[in-house]
Amino acid sequence: MACLLLPTTPNNPLLSPDDEQRVGAMTLRRNRRLQFVENASFDPSITYYDASYENSQAHSPQFSQHMDDVLKLLIDRYPAGSRLVEVGCGKGDFLDKANDTGHFVCRGFDTTYTGNAPYIEKRYLKEDDRIEADIVVLRHVLEHIPQPHTFISMLAKIFGEAEIYVEVPNLDWILENNTFFDITYEHVNYFSQYALSALFGRKVKMANLCFSDQYQFVIANLAEATTQFTSAYDGENWDDVSFDDLFPALTKQIINLEGMTQHTGKCYFWGAATKGCMFLWHANRLNRLVDVVPYAVDINPDKQGRWLPGSKTAIRAPEDFYKDAKPGDLLVISNPAYQQEIKSELSRRDLDFVSVTCI
After folding, report:
1. Are 190 and 183 in contact (CB under 8 A)?
2. By residue range, what is the domain housing residue 142?
């Protein structure tokens, strides 16, 4: 199996360019029956999720609107006073929104939580927990957990016959759009739409794509969690697959961007989350492009003043870019879902002379 070294938590920027960088081995395999991909070399002991882990996207109006859309879906489905529990609620961005509506009785769990909301407990769930809920929310958690079917089974024991909303990245979109930067060490699982619904024996109450098709969700009853996924997972249904076979355009894409900066001199990256980090990680691995990148831009103040793992690219505030941008500079937007939002802001600041592209 082909092995690749990746940063273990790309959403944990370095406090200093001299900080130790943690890397892990990735060897990918695909389950034919489930249409499911995983990292067979994943070692959870070398990933770390503490209070410094920064995975919030709530500072973006686009992502904030996505959370509002999810919340509206749940409000329309569950009556006022329903008990909503978010497992892995992070910094509490979504749960705070849910609580502010007054529609739900909210409760959350996450060991990385740093706030003081009384309805969020700074801990992981335990197998002997027994919690009453009408709807369990699991947003961008399941892709981090090895053998996800075992975790769903644990939630079924904890919450009984509660319904669950599960949201994860969409593997089909990742492959169709050549987004190799979505393959990260902290994501051990990659779900097709089929694989996600298969966790519940395909007896889901609702399934759809969201956030410009980059994400997908299902709503199901936890009581529908079946052994079908387990049987297919444990069976002889696996094929080894290499990273480069999944994303043959990787090197070409990086070289093309490098060519676009040949005469301009500077190439800025907007977005210091996973996508921006992984793109520059691979560029650095190939000894391409990073020499003409002064810094990455991010609107999240908790990331500003830190450095991306791998490439050790500095992270700065948008105001720095607005001041430093010159005619002929190239701005690479890490996530195309934010393109219009960012271009509108550039126009408002009379920075239309900056060339803009997306990865």
Report:
1. yes
2. 36-240
Backbone angles phi, psi at 248, to 5 degrees: -70, -15
In terms of domains, do 74 and 110 share one?
Answer: yes
In tens, the pLDDT along 167-216 reads 999 999 999 988 888 898 989 999 999 999 999 988 899 999 999 999 99
Could you tell me the pTM of the whole model?
0.79
Q: Considering Cα of 270, then 273, then 274, then 277, what sign does the dihedral take?
A: positive
Same domain, 46 and 114: yes
pLDDT at 56: 57
Q: Report residue 113: phi and psi, to 5°.
A: -65, 135
* Same domain? 230 vs 310: no
254 and 204 co-located in one domain: no
275-299 as b/e: b if 16+ CB within 10 A: bbbbbbbbbbbeebbbebbbbbbbb
* Number of domains composing the chain: 2
CATH number at residue 329: 3.40.50.720
Please give the C-alpha separations between residue 209 and each of 166, 193, 318, in angstroms, as whole numbers: 12, 9, 30
What is the structure's pLDDT at 265? 76
Structure tokens at 344: 């509108």
Q: How many residues are given for the chain?
A: 359
